[in-house]
């Protein structure tokens, strides 16, 4: 029987080339090597990149404009073309610091009504607001004949009249011969007199704020004692003798007060003895007490390292001094300190309440309709406008709680309120109430992330539920809890609207924490960097002059928030490594 040829089944890959093609056959699609959704990944990454560029650009703008405030700029003197009426009070010259060159906003037309090429103008910071009535000068570039840099131009920081830019003319020290401005002894003598004036100013401050302030506090305490003896329900038998002792002590303090006030008047009279004659760059002659000058520089004679040194000195003064001249001059130390203290108190207040509420909702409360309603209410509180919390804090904390404290413990001081008015305590409590939803939500998520095996292992070893939460769950949840605290600090440090109702002020004469017993004064009003920015930007008498201070203060507010957050992040990372548990 002949062999039979083997037969093979058709290959699943498709018909062979020799097989006739079926007109209804459709070949399978070519395999695609691009994963599904890859275009959306690229789209979201592009959005992230755009967001990062916008954030970095904004930070770069704030940092560059904020730090440029402290860098010394050269002083220029502008010579106008003949017949120009653009000078200051008819003067053919003026000068100051060149701020920028910009295109004029008004479009000029020729005789045929066609627009001319764009024109440009200069902006100069001329200072000398007491002499000119303004701080900035705009001038058309066509009006400028020449620009020079006078070597002897002085930029002086004054105590109450703002910055002055001038050419020295004559210095008249007390009981000494006059020194002309071109003398080699002029600058060293001016430095010595300015330093002496600053020392006398510090002495006056020591007398008025500390010594006279202590006398006033003692007199206030004696006044309260007198009121208690005179109007108390049960006056003691020795009340007349005690009143006589109070009067004697008050007379002694009054004599000390008069002596200190006389000393302060003598120092102020000595401050006005040394005078400086100078000429502004527009030609106006002025005379000022040397003691009015806090510091001065000759910017046109400074090299790079000289400017760098001046930059460091100005930046340190900005950080360490108090504001002056409607907050447009001086430093912002009270605002930095007030922001730090308020944020710290808010963090101390919000953490225990937020953590305890999250523990109850997650670990103890029976999951049901009530707990779901509570969670919805917490999430809704996170979206309530901050000004609403400010109104609530004013009504509840200030008027109700603070007023009750005054009635119970400070009734002798009424009608002057102690705690029944805005203060750093009520501001911290209001912001803590505003940020507690953030802490509750983040703590609940952190508690839920702890592995079930860790809980069951602790319970299997005989620990109670609270011991398990205390020693296992909470340590493992600390990084997540700190994440919520970081978010709360970042939001609370930048809030302004509620603080305007519960304690922040434009200028606070004292700090919430100082060397006066009891050292921590939670009832005092305070300054805040956010409100300081608002005050400079929208309530300043010269918004154009205050614009550099706005950028500098904004830069410091961002820096403070970043430092607080970095500190909390470092603590969180340390705790995350310390209490790391395995998940199973």
Structure, described:
The structure is a single chain. By secondary structure, the chain is an alpha+beta fold. It contains 14 helices and 13 strands. It has helices at 38-68, 129-132, 186-231, 239-271, 304-320, 333-364, 369-381, 386-409, 424-449, 452-460, 465-494, 499-502, 529-538, 543-578, and strands at 75-80, 93-103, 120-125, 136-140, 144-148, 154-158, 163-172, 179-180, 275-280, 285-289, 293-297, 323-324, 329-330. Strand 7 (163-172) and strand 8 (179-180) form a beta hairpin. Helix 3 (186-231) runs antiparallel to helix 4 (239-271) and helix 6 runs antiparallel to helix 11 (465-494). The two termini are 71 Å apart. The model is unreliable at 7-13 (pLDDT under 50).
Could you outline the blueprint of secondary structure elements for this entry?
Layout: H1 38-68, E1 75-80, E2 93-103, E3 120-125, H2 129-132, E4 136-140, E5 144-148, E6 154-158, E7 163-172, E8 179-180, H3 186-231, H4 239-271, E9 275-280, E10 285-289, E11 293-297, H5 304-320, E12 323-324, E13 329-330, H6 333-364, H7 369-381, H8 386-409, H9 424-449, H10 452-460, H11 465-494, H12 499-502, H13 529-538, H14 543-578
Antiparallel strand pairs: 1-2, 1-5, 2-3, 3-4, 6-7, 6-11, 7-8, 7-9, 9-10, 12-13
Helix pairs in contact: 1-14, 3-4, 6-9, 6-11, 8-9, 9-11, 10-11, 11-14, 13-14
């Amino acid at each position: 029987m002949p062999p039979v040829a083997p037969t093979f089944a058709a290959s699943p890959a498709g018909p062979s080339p020799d097989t006739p093609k079926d007109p209804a056959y459709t070949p399978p699609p070519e395999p695609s090597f691009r994963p599904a959704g890859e275009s959306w990944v690229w789209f979201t990454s592009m959005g992230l990149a755009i967001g990062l560029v916008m954030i970095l650009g904004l930070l770069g703008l704030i940092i560059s404009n904020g730090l440029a405030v402290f860098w010394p700029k050269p002083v220029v003197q502008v010579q106008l073309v003949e017949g120009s009426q653009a000078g200051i009070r008819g003067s053919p010259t003026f000068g100051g610091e060149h701020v920028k060159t910009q295109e004029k906003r008004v479009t000029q037309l020729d005789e045929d009504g066609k627009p001319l090429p764009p024109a440009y103008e200069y902006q100069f910071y001329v200072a000398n607001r007491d002499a000119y009535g303004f701080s900035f000068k705009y001038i058309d570039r066509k009006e400028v004949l020449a620009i020079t840099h006078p070597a002897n131009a002085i930029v002086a920081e004054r105590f109450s009249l703002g910055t002055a830019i001038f050419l020295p003319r004559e210095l008249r020290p007390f009981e000494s011969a006059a020194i002309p401005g071109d003398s080699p002894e002029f600058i060293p003598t001016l430095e010595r007199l300015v330093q002496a004036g600053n020392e006398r100013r510090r002495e006056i401050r020591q007398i008025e704020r500390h010594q006279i302030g202590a006398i006033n506090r003692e007199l206030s305490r004696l006044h309260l004692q007198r009121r208690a003896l005179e109007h108390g329900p049960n006056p003691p038998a020795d009340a007349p003798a005690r009143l006589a002792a109070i009067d004697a002590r008050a007379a002694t303090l009054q004599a000390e007060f008069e002596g200190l006030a006389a000393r302060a008047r003598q120092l102020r009279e000595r401050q006005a003895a040394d005078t400086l004659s100078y000429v502004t760059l527009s030609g106006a002659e002025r005379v000022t007490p040397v003691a009015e000058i806090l510091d001065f520089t000759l910017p046109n004679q400074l090299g790079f390292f000289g400017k760098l040194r001046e930059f460091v000195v100005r930046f340190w003064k900005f950080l360490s001094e108090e504001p002056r001249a409607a907050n447009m001059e001086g430093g912002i130390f009270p605002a930095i300190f007030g922001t730090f203290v308020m944020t710290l108190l808010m963090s101390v207040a919000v953490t225990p309440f937020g953590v305890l509420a999250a523990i109850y909702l997650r670990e103890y409360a029976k999951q049901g309709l009530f707990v779901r309603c509570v969670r919805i209410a917490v999430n809704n509180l996170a979206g309530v406008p901050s000004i609403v919390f400010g109104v609530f804090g004013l009504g509840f904390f200030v008027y109700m709680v603070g007023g009750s404290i005054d009635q119970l413990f400070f009734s002798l001081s009424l009608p002057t309120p102690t705690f029944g008015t805005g203060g750093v305590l009520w501001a911290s409590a209001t912001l803590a109430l505003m940020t507690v939803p953030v802490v509750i939500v983040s703590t609940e998520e952190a508690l839920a992330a702890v592995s079930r095996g860790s809980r069951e292992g602790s319970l299997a070893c005989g620990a109670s539920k609270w011991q398990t939460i205390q020693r296992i769950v909470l340590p493992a949840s600390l990084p997540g809890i700190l994440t919520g605290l970081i978010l709360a600090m970042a939001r609370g440090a930048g809030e302004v609207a509620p603080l305007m109702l519960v304690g922040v002020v434009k200028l606070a004469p004292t700090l919430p924490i100082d060397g006066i017993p009891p050292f921590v004064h939670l009832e005092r009003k305070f300054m805040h960097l956010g409100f300081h920015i608002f005050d400079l930007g929208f309530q300043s008498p010269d918004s154009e002059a205050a614009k550099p201070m706005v950028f500098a203060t904004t830069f410091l507010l961002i820096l403070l928030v970043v430092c607080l957050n970095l500190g909390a992040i470092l603590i969180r990372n340390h705790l995350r490594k310390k209490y790391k548990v395995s998940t199973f």
